Amino acid sequence: MQADLEELARRTWHRTRWGWALKCHQGEETFTDINLLDLMRWSTRHRVLKTSKQDEKHKGTDWEWFIRHRGVWRSFAVQAKKVSPSGRYDALHHPVKGSSLVLPGMVIPQIDVLELYSKLTGAAPLYVLFNHDPTADATTWHCHLSLSSEQLGCSVADLTFIRTALGTYGGRFFTPIHQGGAAPGDV
């Protein structure tokens, strides 16, 4: 499974760079769809349930991920975000209206919906970040393996770390998020 995840990260890193260079940007949904399709095909040690567009406002997820480790299944509620060419995660503080988890008509941040849903289901809330940053270096690499910037194509951060980043001036950018140690080098 590790090799599969490393391949997804590598592809995402390069697809992001190519999209920017060729002015053919791919959105978060495209990256999610491509990566989830491969995840669904490649392993029997995990299961992926893609969240429909209609259900995303009720769950705060793009997918739910179930991973079997030593015979025990763990669940994760996952929200994906894509870095912009400026290095910022523009949609990190996305507002949601009409979630069934709050009062009708109430607008709340997507991160709050994800947290509420995770508490209801017992899933660990995670963010998967789709990345490319030509300035990535050893300060943004948190892995025991040798530095491989393209492995930062997909990185993972828990909800608590993302909430802290949202409350920090300049915290929505690639470098501060990855220097903070929340996102391991390879997913």
Task: Tell me the β content.
Answer: 15-25%
The CATH architecture: 3-Layer(aba) Sandwich
**If you consult CATH, what is the topology?**
Trna Endonuclease, Chain: A, domain 1
Helix/strand/pairing category: alpha+beta
Query: What would you report as the Rg, rounded to the nearest angstrom?
Result: 16 Å
Residue runs with pLDDT of under 50 for 5 or more positions: 181-187
Descriptive overview:
The chain has about 190 residues and is an alpha+beta fold. It has a single domain, classed as Trna Endonuclease, Chain: A, domain 1, CATH 3.40.1350. The protein is about 35% helix and about 20% strand. The chain is built from six helices and seven strands; from the N terminus they run ααβαββββαββαα. It has helices at about 1-20, 30-40, 55-60, 110-120, 160-165, 175-180, and strands at about 45-50, 65-70, 70-80, 95, 105-110, 125-130, 155-160. The strands form two sheets. The protein has a five-stranded mixed β-sheet with strand order 1-2-3-6-7. Strands 4-5 form a two-stranded antiparallel sheet. β2 (about 65-70) and β3 form a beta hairpin. α1 (about 1-20) packs antiparallel against α2 (about 30-40). It comes from Deinococcus multiflagellatus. Pfam families: DUF6615. This is DUF6615 family protein.
